[in-house]
Amino acid sequence: MELVAAAKLRRAQARIEAMRPYAERMQELMVGVARASSSVQRLPLLQRRDVRTAAILPLTGDRGLAGAFNAQILREAFGLERSLREGGVEPRWLVSGKKGASTLSFRRYEVAQAWTGFSDSPHYADAQAIAHRIAELYTEQEVDRVVVIYNHFESALTQRVVSQEVLPVPENLLEEQADDDRAQALLGDFIYEPEPEQILERLLPVYVETELYRALLESAASEQGARMTAMRNASKNAGELIDQLTLQMNRARQAEITQEILEVVAGADALTA
To answer: What is the DSSP string of 230-245?
Structure first.
C-alpha cells in the first residue's frame, strides 16, 4: 500500500502543478474585469448578507488507513460548527467522501448532500457538480456562507488543514493589487464585449469550480501522502514488534531447554546417589 500510495502521490502532484497556472490566470482575469466594472456587487455570487445559515463542506477520503487524514478534517469541521452555533448561525452540512458521510451519519447529523467515489482521483466534472450545488444553495438564499475544509498538500509528510470561504466570493480577491506584467496588462484600457458585468457573471461560477477542483486535488495528494506515511510507519512498527516477539520467543525457548537440561542432570544425580 505504501508503494501504491507513492505512485498515486506522484500523479496527484503532477495534476496540482498543471492546475496552478490555470487558477492563477483565472484570478488575474477576474481582477482585470472587475476593475473595469462599477457594479460588480450586484452579481449573486458576490452579494454579502447577514449570515444566518452557513454550509460546511469537509473534503474527506473514501477509504481509511491514512493516519489522521480524515480525523483532522472532521475535527476542524466540528470545531467550526461549534463556533457558528455560539455565534447564532445555523450550520448546514454537505460532505465529500465516504468517511465524512459515514461519520456524520453515525452522529445523526442531517446531511443536505454527499458526494463519494472520487477522492483518490477527482475530475473537473466532480468539482462542477459540487460547485453547482453550493452556488444554487447560495443564490436561492438557503445558505449565506459556504466554507470548504480540506487538507492542503505541502509535502508527503506534512498536510495542513485549511478552512476556505468560497461563497460569497471574497471581496479581497477582486480588490487585490496585481504585480506581475500579465496582470497589469489586464488592467489596461480595453473595450469589453460583452459588458464586464456579463463577463464576470460567467467567470464567477467557473472560479468557484476551479477553487473546488484545486481543493479536491490538494486533498487527493494529501490523502496519498498521509497513507504513504501511515503505511511506512505501520511497516516499521510491525518490524519492531516482530523483532520484539522473536526475542521473547527465543528467550522462552532457551529457558525451556535449560529447564529440561536441569531436570535431566538432577535425575542423573539422583540415580548415582
So the answer is: HHHHHHHHHHHHHHHH
